[in-house]
């Protein structure tokens, strides 16, 4: 059990985060009257057709709330370390930010804790939300832990479990974990402030899966896999970066699907990747041992639409009635 001295002054906190996922965590700390002496976020980056500078979601929120904002280009720079040191932080809170050098995460009096979107030590890595769904997990959660040398390995402070629905997408789970994670951040800070928290070391086992960065090959659909596997891949990559296949040489991203149950009397000898459609209302693709019904998709160069809209503008022929097999 860790304890802080009685009659202690108000905690001086530094918050580090960049995307939308981090905003509710910062917001809930402010709503509960915690002193955030600085917000550290990514530098503005050019984006869009005009390459205009894009501000992070955390920066926009911090500006609205008139917070002190720092945007270091290099976290290892002596200038940034000195800026941080002058703030005299007691605690640093990290939510969806870059990997910190030791000189930074060790600086606060109490330490630096991170919010991770999984039940550590499960799904350590860059894409825990995606991989939990891709692997067909029924539950995941959020973890707060103190930073140590190796990424996502520090001692656990708190965890919160959350169920994953059968057809839930990564985007939907992201939003649920964003809010659950914010509540966990607040509870963690409250326990630290009260000196009433214990730490649990992470214990690894052979069956624990990791959550590596997503690459293009991760997103490519292999129609030789089962409908169950492909359905999980599609929802685990939706809405971004999205699972894809190739149809007549063009990329087709698929965002929503459902497993289609075939009565034994209707089983066919279709090969994997073969398309079955009435041209009006349904689009099904043969997988190993079953069919997958496509509900929402996007043809290269077009907008995302549902299947009925897609079929109104696309005609299948003998030359384009099968997805490419890689």
Task: Walk me through what this model shows.
This protein has 326 residues and is of the alpha/beta class. It folds into two domains: 12-194, Formyl transferase, N-terminal domain (Rossmann fold, 3-Layer(aba) Sandwich), CATH 3.40.50.170; 216-313, Formyl transferase, C-terminal domain (Methionyl-tRNA Fmet Formyltransferase, Chain A, domain 2, Roll), CATH 3.10.25. It is built from nine helices and 15 strands. The chain has helices at 23-31, 57-64, 78-87, 102-105, 128-134, 170-194, 216-219, 227-236, 307-313; strands spanning 12-17, 35-40, 45-47, 52-54, 69-70, 91-95, 111-116, 139-146, 156-163, 243-247, 250-260, 275-277, 283-287, 290-299, 305-306. Strand 14 (290-299) and strand 15 (305-306) form a beta hairpin. 36% of the residues are buried.
**DSSP summary, beta strand count:** 15
CATH class of the largest domain: Alpha Beta
Overall mean confidence score, pLDDT? 93
- CATH architecture descriptor text of the largest domain: 3-Layer(aba) Sandwich
Instruction: Show unreliable segments.
Output: none
CATH level 4 superfamily of the largest domain: Formyl transferase, N-terminal domain
For the record, the count of structural domains works out to 2
What general form does the structure show?
A: elongated
Category by helix and strand content: alpha/beta
Beta fraction of the residues?
Answer: 25-35%
Helical proportion, percent range: 25-40%
Span between termini: 54 Å
Global Rg: 23 Å
The neighbouring-strand order within the major sheet is 5-2-1-6-7-8-9
Number of helices: 9
The main sheet comes to: 7 strands, mixed
């Amino acid at each position: 059990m860790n304890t802080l001295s009685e009659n202690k002054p108000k905690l001086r906190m530094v918050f580090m985060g960049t995307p939308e996922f981090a905003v509710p965590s910062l917001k809930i700390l402010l709503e509960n009257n915690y002193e955030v002496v600085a917000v550290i976020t990514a530098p503005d980056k050019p984006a869009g057709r005009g390459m205009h500078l894009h501000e992070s979601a955390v920066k926009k929120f911090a500006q609205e709330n008139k917070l002190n904002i720092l945007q270091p280009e290099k976290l290892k720079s002596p200038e940034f370390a000195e800026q941080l040191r002058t703030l005299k932080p007691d605690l640093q809170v990290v939510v969806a930010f870059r990997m910190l050098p030791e000189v930074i995460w060790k600086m606060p009096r109490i330490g630096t804790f991170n919010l991770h979107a999984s039940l550590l030590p499960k799904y350590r890595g860059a894409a825990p939300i995606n991989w939990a769904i891709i692997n067909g997990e029924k539950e995941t959660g959020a973890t707060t832990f103190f930073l140590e040398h190796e990424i996502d390995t520090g001692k656990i402070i708190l965890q919160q479990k959350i169920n994953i629905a059968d057809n839930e997408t990564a985007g939907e789970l992201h939003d649920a974990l964003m809010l659950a994670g914010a509540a966990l951040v607040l509870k963690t800070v409250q326990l630290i402030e009260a000196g009433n928290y214990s730490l649990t070391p992470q214990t690894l086992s052979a069956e624990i899966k990791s959550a590596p960065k997503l690459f293009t090959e991760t997103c490519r659909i292999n129609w030789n896999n089962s409908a169950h596997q492909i359905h999980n891949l599609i929802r685990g990559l939706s809405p971004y970066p999205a699972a894809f296949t190739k149809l007549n040489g063009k990329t087709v991203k698929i965002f929503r699907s459902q497993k289609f149950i075939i009565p034994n009397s209707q089983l066919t000898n279709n090969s994997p990747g073969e398309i079955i459609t009435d041209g009006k209302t349904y689009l099904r693709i043969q997988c190993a041992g079953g069919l997958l019904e496509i509900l929402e998709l996007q043809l290269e160069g077009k907008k995302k639409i549902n299947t009925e809209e897609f079929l109104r503008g696309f005609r299948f022929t003998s030359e384009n009635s099968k997805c490419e097999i890689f």
